[in-house]
Design goal:
Elements lengths: L2 H19 L22 H39 L5 H37 L3
């Protein structure tokens, strides 16, 4: 495999791993066999707490991601400006990797935000 394909695959697997860590395990009980044993639960408070915590974690990840992206952009820009003309081609390669990484970061957080909002619409109705 080429290095570029390996990097793309590693980035994709990292995003999949991050998304899978956010999933909550669900355990079925044996009460589904006897409908008389099923009692209603008021899990609205737990759902609200989970929804709020998920939103806070997502906000923190977005803030850290934007901060890292801006710092990296500044570093790469300073390197590019101060580099000799012969070194600028090598720095342009790093810029491509930076742009791909930033797009993946913003796309992943954007997709997670959409999923969170969609889950909120399902849980709470029209918003």
């Amino acid at each position: 495999m080429s290095k570029k394909m390996t990097k793309i695959l590693a980035s994709f697997l990292t995003v999949i791993m991050m998304i899978s860590m956010l999933m909550i395990p669900v355990f079925a009980s044996n009460d589904y066999l006897d409908p008389e044993k099923i009692t209603p639960n008021d899990n609205a408070n737990i759902a609200d707490t989970a929804y709020n915590i998920t939103g806070q974690i997502l906000s923190i990840v977005q803030i850290i991601g934007v901060a890292v992206a801006v710092i990296m952009l500044i570093v790469v820009a300073i390197k590019y400006i101060s580099a000799a003309p012969s070194d600028k081609a090598e720095i342009k390669k790093h810029i491509v990797v930076y742009v791909v990484g930033a797009v993946i970061l913003f796309a992943a957080t954007g997709i997670l935000e959409i999923i969170k909002n969609f889950a909120g619409i399902i849980e709470y109705g029209n918003g």
